[in-house]
Structures are given as C-alpha cells and as structure tokens.
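Lab notes, practical 5.
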Amino acid sequence: MTERLVVIGGDAAGMSAAAVVKRQAADALEVVVLERGHHVSYSACGIPYWVSGDVEGPDRLVARTAAEHRRNGIDVRMRTEATSIDLSAATVEARDVDSGSRVQLGYDSLMIATGAVPRRPDLPGIDAAGVHGVQTLDDGERLLHRIESEQPRTAVVVGGGYIGLEMAEACLRRGLSVSLVDMADEPMTTLDPPVGALVREAMQDIGVDVRTGIAVSGLEVDARAHVCAVATDDGVLSADLVILALGVQPLTELASAAGLPTGLSGGLRTDATMRVDGSSQVFAAGDCVESWDRVSESWLHVPLGTHANKQGRVAGLNIAGRHATFPGVVRTAVTKVCDLEIGRTGLREADARRLGFDVVGVTIETTTKAGYFPGTQPMTVTMMADRATRRLLGAQIVGREGSAKRIDTCAMALWSQLTVDELMMSDLAYAPPFSSVWDPVQVAARAAVAELG
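Output from the prediction step:
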C-alpha cells in the first residue's frame, strides 16, 4: 500500500522536502502539502526589494507555483491550515481557510515546516491599521497595497536588524520620510557595535532618521483606528505607516500542543537527519527549528532561507529512505544599505568572551581592488581569533561594491576550523581588478597573526 507524507507548510523547507521525496520515491509515497497562504516556494528575502521596486512581484519571487508542483505529482492544498496533530493516531486535522470545512489526514511520515512569525510586542495600538509585519508574500502584498492606495508620507520602522534596514531603504525609495527606531546603541546587533556604527552612518547618509538606544512605548491611533504616530522614550514620531522589524519567532504552537519538544528559543529540536527528537516519523526544518552552531557549539534559532532549503532537502532524503545529515551553521549572512555591503559570520566579540574564549580582535581598512586600480572602493574587515588555539572565531565586513561576499571565505575557514595563520596563507585568487595581492580577508588574518605574536 502506498505510504503518505503530510507536509505542513509550503515554503522553502516544506516544498524542498516534498520535491525531494517525490523525485526519490515517485509513486511509492503520496505527498500532501498543506499551505494556509496563497503562495508556495517563494523568496521571503526578496520582499524588501519588491517593495522598493527593484524586482517585480509577487510572481518573480515564486520559484515554483502550486500548479507546477501538482504537475510533478505533489498534492498541494492551498488555503488549508493544519489545526492539530495527533501523534498517537498519526493524523493531522486541517481546515479550509475560506470555507471552514475540515478534513483529517493520516500519515506515515510528517514534515513540519511552519516557519516563523514576526514578533509583535504587546503595546497600545499595535493592532491598528497601518501597522505591518513583513514575513510572507501576503504580508508584502498588503503593505504595497497600503502604500499605493493611501500614499503615506511618513514611515517608522521599529527594529534595526536585516529586515528593518532593508525595509527602511525600500520605504525611502518609495518616497516616504523614514525613521528607524531601535533599542540597541547601534543598528544590526548581529555586528559588533563599532561595525554597527558604520551601518548607522550609511543609513543617515541616505536620509533615514536613525534613533538608537530608545524604546517604543506605544502607537498612537487616530479616529479611523489608523496608526498616526509612534511614542518613544525620546519623543513622538509621526507615522502614517509602521513596519515591525523586531525579528521573528518560531511558529511551533501546533507542534508544541502535540507534545513535540522545543528548545530555549521555542524552535523544534531535531537530530542531524531533521527528525524531531523522540519521534522517528516526524521531521521538521526551516524557520520553525533550532540549528546547531558549529562555532559556539550551542542550539540557536537562525531563520534563513539557505538553511531552510538545505534542511528540507535533508529531511526529504531521509523520508524517502536515503541517508543525509544537516551539519549545522556558522551564522553567515549578508545584506546591503544602498551601496554599502555588510557581511558577517561566526561570533561577535561579546559572544566569544561570554563563551570563555580569550579573544584577539583586529580591524583593518583596505580596498576592494588593488589600490591603484580604477573603481576601487573602501572596505573595513574585523576579525577575531582565540589566543589559545589561534582558531578563527568570527569576522565582519562592511564596504562598497565587491566587499560583502568575501565573508564567504571567512565562513569556509570557520567551517573548517582554520587558524588565522592558515587563513593568511590560503591560496586565494589575485588580479588587480579584483583584489590587492593580499586579499582583504588575508590582510585581516595577517593582522590577527601579528597581534597573537
């Protein structure tokens, strides 16, 4: 008898798993995907660039439509929300979002890929019209509709992480006057504060009013129940539009209610095969799980599409009877503000010291190409190593075009547990249009070696 895989969630992790299972097992496994939204297999990371006008959407952000998945033999059920999981009976109950009708599905394997949801602080006015989180294509459509139909003049972005920076720039390019508010002393708390200061300066240079080190106390609402201002402990900011960019939290209420284990972040805990701990036939992947950090050797919630796709593939291979493992993360990420590129990987200095490392840190100023070559741009590289082992612990790069993707070299060094001595002497490509004779990453490693003595 044909076995059935039920997948809850139809974005990166869920559809990666479903597609792999169908390719590997063909008709030996029936694959049913439950997706409560209007889209599957889309790039949430592209939403800020859709809002800014850099890319068309939402169709351009969809890698494969539900119809295309169905043609490949996957039973994709849109606007269908899983409402409960019965582990003992191996069933999922689901509800049609539009009609309210319910169905119960048995499963032989279950894949949980419910993703994450934007954090919404419990503040006065938080549910007013004009207050938006940005996590799904549906969120992006609602936001764009409001911008185009109401033509707001002022926007306040609450939160200075990746999405906050990207959405602030997107709103600015849409012609709005933009303020960004963050409780931290500098934006992008995934960076060390001196590097975050470079980001703040870049934001201010393009016209964003950056207010750091202040907290939001509430949102003011007008007679139409529409947001009109953001109250902070440093005054009131006018706001026709508010974008919440306070990060996300794993969407695991359904799994937790079924008795599945979660970690400190609320994300599901899995083993390296993406099986949920203690459940041989239940798998999970993507923004709803915690990932093993290879540098700090701890569990973290790291919601990125890169991990979701890989974890979904690993889960799919194991469900289909193959063997694969997800080896962890080193927290590599890039973004940009206008033409300023930002990359980071590994630990921040505060992280490393908290974990007990004797940290040696260096910061160097260099260029993206040979200094004499036309078009060369400045860049800053910070790098940290452990004094005892000389092992690389983390790196951050901020600079103009040609800077950020160099962080991948540092990420591979972290992945392979290289010392800064080994990184300094690694065989990297050189030609004046691309680099100085010592690549900027090697220049930073050389400075760390000198500091270590």
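Observations recorded by the TA: The radius of gyration is 23 Å. Residues 305-319 form the longest helix (15 residues).
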